[in-house]
Design goal:
164 residues; mainly alpha; 75% helix
Length: 164
């Protein structure tokens, strides 16, 4: 859990107290929040678009071992067969052709603990990018997208517990 918190605080430039408040929001509250909008608006989308080939190369190389880890170590049952879908989704998001709600729908089956354990490792896939600005921008973008997934997953868990 501490790696997850430090990933969010480092790459999204929020304090642990701010993060805890964000993580207790509902998905709708988060999607409509000025905090998330500010984080998404602060992304350098031109840089992200220009460096899509770099990100695509990293994802193509690093996602297959990441997917194996998800399946074999974390027990995630539905793991993509190839990195193509993730790479395409990231590209479509950067080009405003894919939505955050669709991202949430795609990840609903992933157990919350597995999702939260995977995020630091996923963000870390970009650690080898030599250009600091490019590395930081991609890590920030992936972290922002993952924040949405965590809030949605925690909300889903709260709702499930309330029903029981």
């Amino acid at each position: 859990m501490s790696m997850l918190i430090s990933t969010f605080t480092e790459h999204l430039d929020v304090s642990p107290i701010q993060l805890e408040a964000i993580l207790t929001k509902s998905l709708i509250e988060l999607l409509n929040s000025p905090e998330l909008q500010a984080k998404l608006n602060s992304l350098d989308t031109n840089l992200l678009r220009e460096t899509l080939p770099t990100a695509g190369g990293i994802l193509a190389k690093e996602l297959p071992p990441f997917y194996n880890w998800l399946k074999n170590e974390l027990g995630v049952k539905r793991v993509p067969d190839s990195p193509d879908h993730t790479t395409k989704w990231v590209i479509d998001f950067v080009h405003n052709r894919e939505s955050l709600t669709r991202l949430v729908e795609l990840h609903r089956p992933v157990p919350r603990l597995a999702l939260e354990a995977a995020i630091p490792r996923l963000v870390g896939l970009f650690a080898g990018v030599e250009d600091e600005q490019i590395r930081q921008e991609w890590q920030k973008a992936v972290t922002a997208l993952c924040l949405v997934l965590v809030v949605a997953s925690r909300e889903q868990e709260r709702v499930s517990l309330a029903v029981c």
